[in-house]
Every structure is written in structure tokens, then in C-alpha cells.
Amino acid sequence: MNFLFYMSLSLVLVILKTTLMPYFSMFDQFYDMLIPFVFYLGLYRPAREGIPFVLLLGFTLDSLSGGPFGIFLTTYFWIFVLTRWGVTFLHAGNKGLWLIAVAAGVLIENSIIIATILWLGEASDLPPGWGIRVLGQLLWALGTGPVLIIAISIAHRKWSGWASRMVAVVKEQEAR
Amino acid sequence: MFSRKTVMMVGLAVAIMVNIIVLSLSTRHYKKAYMPSRIALAVVAPFQEAVTRSVRFCKNIWTYYFSLISVAEENQILKRQLSEAVEKNNQLSEVALSNLRLRELLNFRKNMPGSFIAAEIISKDPSSWFKAVIIDKGQADGLSKGLPVVISEGIVGQITEVAAHQSKVLMIIDQNSAVDALVQRTRARGVIEGISTDRCFLKYVLRKHDVKVGDAVVSSGLDGVYPKGLLIGYVCGVIKRNSGIFQEVAVTPFVDFEKLEEVLVILNVTESETVAD
After folding, report:
1. Domains in chain A: boundaries
2. Which residues of B touch A71 (CB under 8 A)?
3. Burial of residue B125 (number of CB atoms within 10 Å: 0-12, 13-18, 19+)
4. Model confidence pTM above 0.80
5. Pick the CATH number of A2-175 from 3.10.350, 1.10.1760, 3.40.50, 1.10.1200
6. Which of A51, A86, B78, B216 has the fewest CB atoms within 10 Å, counting from its CB?
7. What are phi and psi of B262, to 5 degrees?
8. Is B24 an 8 Å CB contact of chain A?
9. A117 touches chain B (CB under 8 A)
10. Tens-digit pLDDT profile for residues B50-103
11. What angle do CA A19, A21, A23 make, to 5 degrees?
12. Closest CB to A18 among B126, B129, B160
């Protein structure tokens, strides 16, 4: 059931980012909305549940993107691993931590992309205005990151409640 | 002395007389206002006014209520009709615009030899660093990796991945894209490379070649992907450094990549080697 929730939410976020947001120029510099989701998985879900999904997610995004394959796979995996490591000594429910963590996630993704571009070519291959692009994404992340995590958390709770009710109903019908 | 009946008759007669006198007096001086009547008016009139107003208010509410019901119903109908008309108008505008774009594509198609397939763009790249789009045609429609994608304004890019019913198109403005190109006027040759913005660079153009701002850049056909003579963009800047054998040429693509909706995929590149004028 959890996996179904992750799949549905990822689909919604991907469609939002790739199909709906391009219609609004104000979202041109919006960050990758799956970063807060991966961070959420790292905070609250065990590695055996999170890692396969995070890898699947990275694979899907890499397939949709025109960039070199593996960028999203690498980004999501490391965000997940770093979050799992972070919660061993930091308080997972700290909203301030969320703020920094999402921004850090955005920085990680952009650093990996920049490193890839530099690896493939030379410094001049970096698109003009790349600094503003990164800054824009960071600002968006600082402004909306924790809100997105809270929304994901609420949606997950509602989904779990609904799923357990459904399971109870099915069991009751089977018992009859 | 007098009987009771006589007294009553006299009393009645006196009363009638007094009444007649008073009436005749008051009729003669009816325009004069008397103090008691003023007081009465001052005391009673406000109540009368209040009651009258209340009654009128209730009457108005009653009347307006019913008329408002019909007005509200009419309003609802008109609003629905207006919204339907607006929606229809919007649909017609969209159809007209789509028609215009498709006509342009059709005209373009007529001028190009070989076979094409039209496709719609269904999504954009999840990362702002890369410039790729997904189209709604795939292997089942005869598409394969490496096919060029164009519109009437010029080259869009090439297919880099194909699924059964969708394909990924890497646009020429992506930094991983390269197109062998010529400056139309002087035939100076170079390679168009994207920089993931709305501009490209024509690289490896020898310094000795004459390139001016405004020159059109077309595909050379030598890369084996794009047919020869397809429009790419126009020169918007030329930088000749003191050293080096090449000059840097900035090119603005003719295609507006932000507004792409429909594209044509060229299926037989070998058949459409050169674009007809």
C-alpha cells in the first residue's frame, strides 16, 4: 500500500513539474519537487523500503530527462543515504532542519549536474546564468520545501488511514 | 314640568344646531391650522409613517423576492450561456491557432521530400539544465533513435530514445546537441552546439570566413541526421578573438522552443536529402 502511495505521489509530482509548471513562467526556476519527497522517505521510511523506490524514481526521471543518464539516480540515492545518516544524530521532526535539508538536496542535485557538465566538457560549457538558476532553485526550496514535506506527510497519513480502513473492511467481509 | 321626551327633543335640536354652526365656521376657515391638530399630527404621524414604511418595505421585499427569483434564474441561465460562449470561443480560438500551425506544418511538409509523421509534445524535461521534450509518437508509429524533428520554422532536434508510443527529443539548444551547419550566404561551415538557453553557438568556423549578424544558418546535411538546407537560426553575434583559428558565432534559433506544441519527425532522411525551396 505504501509503495502504491509513493508511486501515485511521484507521478503527481512529475506531472506537475514536467507538464503543468512549464505553462507558468514563474516556475521556470523551480527546483526538483521529488527532492523533498526523497528527503521525507529518508526521514521516516526504513532503508529496505526507501532505497528500491528511490532508485526506481531516479531511473524514471533519468529516462524522462535529456541529461546524461544517472544524474537523478545518483542525486536521489545520496540524498536518501545522507538523510538516513543525518537522522541518527539529528531530530527528524525539526522543521528548521527540513528547510536546510531541502536546500541542501537542491544544492546536491545542482552540484552533480554541474560536475557532470564539467566532466563531459569544459567550464565554458556551463550555460550562461547558471548561478542565477541555482540561486533561484535554492530560494524556491527555502520558501516551499518544508511546506511540501508537511503536505506529503499529511497525504501519507490520510492514505494510511484510508488503506487500513479498506483492509479492515475486506477482512470483515472475508470473515463473513 | 317638561316631559322626558320633550327634553330629549330639545337637546337633539340644540346639538344639531351647534354642529351646523361649528361645521359652517370650520368650513369657512379650514385653511387655518389649529394647535391641537398640529400636536396630533406630530404625535401620530411618525407612527403612521413607520407603519407605512414597514408595510411598504414588506411589500417591496415580497415583490422583489419574487422578481429576484426570476431575475436570479435568468441570471443563472445567462451566466451559463456566457460561460458556454466563452468556452466555445476559447475552443474556437485554440482550433484556429492549431489550424494555423498545422497549415504551416502542411505547407512545410509539401516542400519537403520524404515521409513525415506529426507528433504532439506532451511534456518537458524535469530538469531546467537540460532541454528535451517527450512526444506522443514512438516505435509503434515507425519512429527510431536518431530521426530528425523539425517544424516549419526550422530544426527542433533529434530523437534520442524511443518507447512504444512516446519518444524523447533532444532539442538543438541542449548542450549535448550538435548539428553540422552552414552559413547560408557564405557557405562557411561549423557545428551548432546548444548551451541550454535560448541560444546556440556555431563553433569551429574559420576566422577567414565572412560571417555577419543577421546571416541565416542552415543544416549542411553532412552529419547524416538532418537533411541539407533546413533552417536553424540567424547569426546574432560574432566574436573574433586575437588568437585562435576559429571565430565564435552566436546563433538565435528560428524555433521558439518555449512555445513548441506540434512537430514533424522526418522518417526517411535519405529520401529528403535536400530541402526544396
Report:
1. 2-175
2. 127
3. buried
4. no
5. 1.10.1760
6. B78
7. -125, 150
8. no
9. yes
10. 777 777 788 788 877 878 888 888 888 998 888 888 888 888 887 888 888 787
11. 85
12. B126
